[in-house]
Design goal:
A five-stranded antiparallel beta sheet has the order 3-2-1-4-5. It folds into two domains: 18-116, no CATH class; 144-174, no CATH class. Helix content is 18%, strand content 25%. A hairpin with a 2-residue loop joins β1 (27-43) and β2 (46-55). By secondary structure, it is an alpha+beta fold. It is built from four helices and five strands, in the order βββαββααα.
Amino acid sequence: MEEKKHFSLGGALSHSGVGILPNGNDIEYIIIDHIEWRIDELVNGVKKDTFVAFFAPNPYTTLPFVLNRDNKSRLLKAAKKGEWDLLDIKNFPVRLTHELTRLGEGLRISKLPPKIPAATAVTVTPIAKPAAPAPKPAITDENFDKAKKFLETGTMDALKGFYEVSEEMEKKLLATPEPVAE
């Protein structure tokens, strides 16, 4: 397999390059967290004003990514933004690849769309249906007196909120008691 190379002055790298590509293969999904305009950014030993993209935490790199003309153009096209809106791009997934440049192999935003890896794909878990409410106890001869007492100050509808009241029991509860002879 051909080794990917890129021009650099050596020493500690300050920005992402083709070296972040796993075995020279595309990074199919990485998120650009945000973009900043940097004045006098040291890039390959030269200070220059440039746009720099910062990636969300990922397994490939912690280094920022210099957006050259080609990468800015591809990013704006993918994000469907105008050139004045570059700094508005946030939390945007891209695919990174390598391409031949005048300086050797360069890290590029791919023209292909990002491919969400299966491990990070969102799975939808069905929401469980709420459990059926517990059945209400029925009014029986044992709790009849309590229900009758409740109806002295409450309504039948309120009672039905707490108990199952059969038609027969409702008639019995609402029946007017016979006056007691003395």
